[in-house]
Amino acid sequence: MSKKHFETEAIRIASSKSNQREHSAPIYLTSSFTFDSAEEARQMFAEEIPGNIYSRYANPNSTDLIEKVCAVEGTEAGLATASGMAAMFASMAALLQQGDHILASRSLFGSTHQLLTRVFPKWGISSTYGDISDIENWDKLVQPNTKMLFIETPSNPGLEIIDLEWVGKFAKAHNLILVVDNCFATPYLQQPAQWGADIVAHSATKYIDGQGRVLGGLILGKKELIDEINFFARHTGPSISPFNAWILSRSMETLAVRMDRHCKNALEVASYFEGNAELEFVKYPFLKSHPQHELAKKQMKQGGGIITLTLKGGIERAQRFIDQLQMITVTANLGDSRSIITHPASTTHSKLTEEERQRVGILPGLIRLSTGLEHHEDIIADVQQALDKSK
Ligand SMILES: *Cc1c(COP(=O)(O)O)cnc(C)c1O
């Protein structure tokens, strides 16, 4: 049958079927699977025939999730992991070895930054950061031992956009494995494989779950690379639990409608506060004022659910503002049905120096708002009253 639309594939692709004629997939809470004979066991271990052996390798629920996400992300193969960081780590650790070098965009998720600067150097794997504003000079950062290019777009929390078409060609020209952390956009808004990404990695904890319930990660890409990562994962054990895989597979069915609303709400809130006298600026990829608005429109279906508001009055003002919020939650997550606010300079990015924060656009008064699925007028009202009371 011909390829269907995103919404349909995300709902209708379902590989796990028991013999009970259930309509919705059951949860396979089993650590291992039985063999009909000694010969069948031998063949499965030898990978001569397919089949489930042990849930550290694969489980019907994780297979179900992977098939859905591969179909909508446009990738050949994949694996699911216990968290987004397990996915980032396994993608790098499985494909690199001592002496290799990683080129990465500077604006990265905090723990990915720790992997590059504190974990991999212990094993002789080094890295260099490239600034997005200086992308024309990235070829000077490629070393003879550079094996991988790792990027995040839109970036967290600066909302900088990297040109995926350009970066896909750049990676190919320099023979680098291109890994894209696609967590902020989700496969619904952007499919990096289409632009040449070899690996697309996700924290499924964010928009894919979408309700702040479970941790999960995904690694998707070319079969040859995924086979190598699968070997690494089988024997190091970052496997997702059947329950979390089941939750995430159900969540995939509603991703499109949820993202439509997240994006609509974010655009409403960003447009409402743009130009507000209490704010230095409002940043959102689908506002015309975003420096890379045209690029965002080229590679993203909509602008995503995250906006940043930079308050006048620095850290003190930002903290007073947060303490006045009545509905919006202050918590270290994003991509939830509930709107969430974070102050990166004093929390997620507090370990960076002031200069490092400046370089990735994290000003003292910057607030990250993950726009939830509440009515946009209620989100606006809460932000407005907290702005008024924190003057
Ligand atoms: C949250 C996040 C991660 C890490 O995912 P976990 O599921 O928390 O391990 C990686 N990258 C980005 C962009 C994230 O937002």
UniProtKB/TrEMBL annotation:
What cofactor does this chain's UniProt record say it requires?
pyridoxal 5'-phosphate
Molecular function GO terms recorded: carbon-sulfur lyase activity; pyridoxal phosphate binding; transferase activity, transferring alkyl or aryl (other than methyl) groups
Record's family? Belongs to the trans-sulfuration enzymes family. MetZ subfamily.
The main enzyme category here is: transferase
What are the EC numbers?
2.5.1.-
Organism the protein comes from: Echinicola pacifica
Q: Output the HAMAP family linked to this UniProt entry.
A: MetZ (MF_02056)
Q: How does it assemble?
A: Homotetramer.
- What is this protein for, i.e. what is its function? Catalyzes the formation of L-homocysteine from O-succinyl-L-homoserine (OSHS) and hydrogen sulfide.
Family annotation (Pfam families): Cys_Met_Meta_PP
Q: What is this protein called?
A: O-succinylhomoserine sulfhydrylase
Q: In which pathway does it act?
A: Amino-acid biosynthesis; L-methionine biosynthesis via de novo pathway; L-homocysteine from O-succinyl-L-homoserine: step 1/1
Q: Which GO terms describe its cellular component?
A: cytoplasm
Which Gene3D superfamilies does UniProt cross-reference here? Aspartate Aminotransferase, domain 1, Type I PLP-dependent aspartate aminotransferase-like (Major domain)
Question: PANTHER family given for it?
Answer: CYSTATHIONINE GAMMA-LYASE (PTHR11808:SF80), TRANS-SULFURATION ENZYME FAMILY MEMBER (PTHR11808)
Q: Positions modified as N6-(pyridoxal phosphate)lysine? A: K206
Signal peptide, first to last residue: none
